[in-house]
Amino acid sequence: MTVRSKPRAGSPAGRETSRTALIAWAFYDWANNGFATVILTFIFSAYFIRRIAPDEVTGSALWGNMVSIAGLCIALGGPVCGAAADQNGRRKPWLIAFMLLSVLATALLWFVKPSPDYLRPALVLVGFGMVGAEYSYIFYNAMLPELAPPDRLGRWSGWGWGLGYAGGLLCLLAALLIMEGGGPGPAGGAPGSLVRIRAGFVLAGVWYLVFSLPLIFLVPDTRGLGKPFARAVRDGIGRLAEMVREVRRFRRIALFLVARMIYIDALATIFALGGVYAAGAFDMNEKAVLLFGVVLNVAAGLGALIFSGLDDRIGPKAIILISLGGLFTGALVILLVHAAPFFWAAGTFMGLFVGPVQAASRSYMARVAPEKMRNQMFGLYAFSGKATAFAGPFLVGWLTYLSGSQRIGMGTVPVLLAAGGLLMLKVPAAEE
User: Quick check: is 290 in a domain?
Assistant: First the structure.
């Protein structure tokens, strides 16, 4: 079956894009989120803090520093890689190289045993895994407008995010089943080596690789321009410099990226400190926090799917504003209530808008990025997601310390959401 779209210059020979290729493209979200869920969010992060770091305070600080350094590398290098790829013409070689970097780094976490002796290798491997995964996403996102017709960009972006949340949860559940399995550990592991937990890290790497194969083999690539790698990088940097000098030509994109930078800071704060707030303000234990994280991910995936069709009907800007309004309302309720059932209800409500705001942001950039600069623009998109991601958690930490109240500290979240929403009001619609 074929989704007919107008051939684009620079697209794969101007061919019609098959639904199979679009589904294969969307499954990369499914593949990538196994790494994010198992390694960054739930299992390895807890394993590092509790089993490798000398104590939880030191472990939390080192983990936060590693995430910040990796984020800085992504923010600074992403636009350069994207601009160089625009000059080179092809996307898939870049995506595959960075995906394999992340897969290898993730699988090698098997060798990270529960001992402070493995502290540095653990941080280095996770840092490389994070950089590889995020860099590959630049080229993955840039493929969307080449594959989907303009009137279905929002739908496919939303379906991709929905699949991502589903894939991440299934990978997490599979890892948990391995961890809880009875009998001797895999590969005859010695007592105390926690081989079942470490097997979950290998699972995340294999999951990432296997579910990336549909994109690698079924999604067509753009034509190469024949430029040598060094020249492509040099010309890409020159194109970035030219864009900075001519920023007025790209005012809409610049305004959107600044707005996104602000509201993504709010989401980063929720992801980083939501569990800590739940534990402190509502006395939730580790299992309850994990269950809440699962519920939040399910709600986010459902929200992305539900809103995906609306994106194409009313535009991504409207979806972003609606989502920010829902997130703002839920955040305020969570700050005001004191009973756990209300926290669960408000948190689940917020989850419904996490997926849509991310999917619609990708859809907006896919619609407005100039055709010959899409990799570069999605590199800048990655920059806007990482450049100031530390700011929200930093503000929450200091406000909590100075006021002695977690609720006052987490008040940063609705402020950032409101600021991002107000700036987004000034951003022209993608259709304008």
Answer: yes
Q: Would 373 be classed as within a structural domain?
A: yes
Say if residues 59 and 50 touch (Cβ distance below 8 Å): yes
SS3 content of the chain, % helix, strand, coil (to 5): 85, 0, 15
Sign for the pseudo-dihedral over CA of 215, 221, 226, 230: negative
Give the CATH number for residue 184: 1.20.1250.20
d(CA 279, CA 404): 16
Count of structural domains, the chain: 1
Domain range for residue 331? 16-425
**Within a domain: 195:** yes
Asked if 313 and 151 touch (Cβ cutoff 8 Å), the reply is no
Give pTM, 2 decimals. 0.83
Closest CA to 393 of 277, 278, 259, 256: 277
CB 50 within 8 A of CB 56: yes
Predicted confidence (pLDDT) per residue in 332-384, tens digit = 999 999 998 999 999 999 999 999 999 999 999 999 998 888 888 888 888 88
Contact between 172 and 194 under an 8 Å Cβ cutoff? The reply is no
Q: Identify any residues that bridge with 2 across adjacent strands, giving them in sequence order.
A: 18
